[in-house]
Amino acid sequence: MYKEPIFLHPEFKERIWGGTKLKKIFNYDIPSDTTGECWGISGHANGPNTILNGPLSGKTLAEAWEQHRELFGNEEGEEFPLLVKILDSKKDLSVQVHPDDQYAREVENQNYGKTECWYVIDCEEESEIIFGHHAKNKEELTSMIDRGQWDSLLRRIPVQPGDFFYVPSGTIHAIGEGIQILETQQSSDITYRVYDYDRTGADGQKRELHLERSLDVTTVPHLDPDLTRESYLEAGLRFEKLVGEKYFTVHHWDLDGKSNDLIPGKYTLVSVLDGEGLVHIGSEDFSFKKGDHFIMPATVAHFKMSGKAKMISSRSNK
């Protein structure tokens, strides 16, 4: 039985829009100069993480979920429900939208749709995202897409470090160039491209769009989520609740000193954005540093942390 954090080896994805900031910021050993994504906590078939420590060292998170559900509070579900990524957008990502659970099951034969959220780690000046659209109804949305009226259709929002966005399924969105974010999402890899700036792939052809399915799943009119960020301090750890909704609850942790007891519940996912410190479980100490990703399993009743670090934590709400 695990009485320690489960540290995970990140998986990297090369993307047409990726760059080198994952190495510069987190000192990751990235595969190329077009590395767009670090999958830090993933049980998804397209990139499951390998466990680095403890009795299951060398196994994947997917295998741990399948064979040792006690680590996750015996939560139900065929697949590990969440996926945590860090993205580096050297160039604009495609304008895209994701389906909800029902559409994913009925059309894609997948367990999960894709609701996600973004915490902006860093960005260049005047960076912006696309978040939503201006169409009043489905007919207007279809017409504006058919006519390529992208400047009129898409909502552009400036961003700065520390910003947070909740992106429910059905939301048209895109991360702009020069932005690094931590994304917490359902464990899904379904993306429908609405527009891709007429870019070509490695084969010299324009990248595929998915307009029919995009129109099927897009929420019209666009609705901005109603979020209130709540912050409170306990000993040396400041908690800021970023979102708590159907699929996940996400907090920003700012550690400066030593925390009180923390309870993982079913289990808690943690990604270290900056700094370093120790996790204290009984008489044992476990070190962590910037760029680490780990899960505190349900088999740990409580733990403390000490050091100086900034982290994003998340929990499944299934």
Automatic annotation (TrEMBL):
<keyword id="KW-0479">Metal-binding</keyword>
<dbReference type="InterPro" id="IPR046457">
    <property type="entry name" value="PMI_typeI_cat"/>
</dbReference>
<protein>
    <recommendedName>
        <fullName>Mannose-6-phosphate isomerase</fullName>
        <ecNumber>5.3.1.8</ecNumber>
    </recommendedName>
</protein>
<dbReference type="InterPro" id="IPR011051">
    <property type="entry name" value="RmlC_Cupin_sf"/>
</dbReference>
<dbReference type="InterPro" id="IPR051804">
    <property type="entry name" value="Carb_Metab_Reg_Kinase/Isom"/>
</dbReference>
<keyword id="KW-0862">Zinc</keyword>
<feature type="domain" description="Phosphomannose isomerase type I catalytic">
    <location>
        <begin position="7"/>
        <end position="110"/>
    </location>
</feature>
<comment type="similarity">
    <text>Belongs to the mannose-6-phosphate isomerase type 1 family.</text>
</comment>
<dbReference type="Pfam" id="PF20511">
    <property type="entry name" value="PMI_typeI_cat"/>
</dbReference>
<dbReference type="InterPro" id="IPR014628">
    <property type="entry name" value="Man6P_isomerase_Firm_short"/>
</dbReference>
<dbReference type="GO" id="GO:0004476">
    <property type="term" value="F:mannose-6-phosphate isomerase activity"/>
</dbReference>
<dbReference type="InterPro" id="IPR049071">
    <property type="entry name" value="MPI_cupin_dom"/>
</dbReference>
<dbReference type="Pfam" id="PF21621">
    <property type="entry name" value="MPI_cupin_dom"/>
</dbReference>
<dbReference type="InterPro" id="IPR014710">
    <property type="entry name" value="RmlC-like_jellyroll"/>
</dbReference>
<dbReference type="InterPro" id="IPR001250">
    <property type="entry name" value="Man6P_Isoase-1"/>
</dbReference>
<keyword id="KW-0413">Isomerase</keyword>
<feature type="domain" description="Mannose-6-phosphate isomerase cupin">
    <location>
        <begin position="241"/>
        <end position="314"/>
    </location>
</feature>
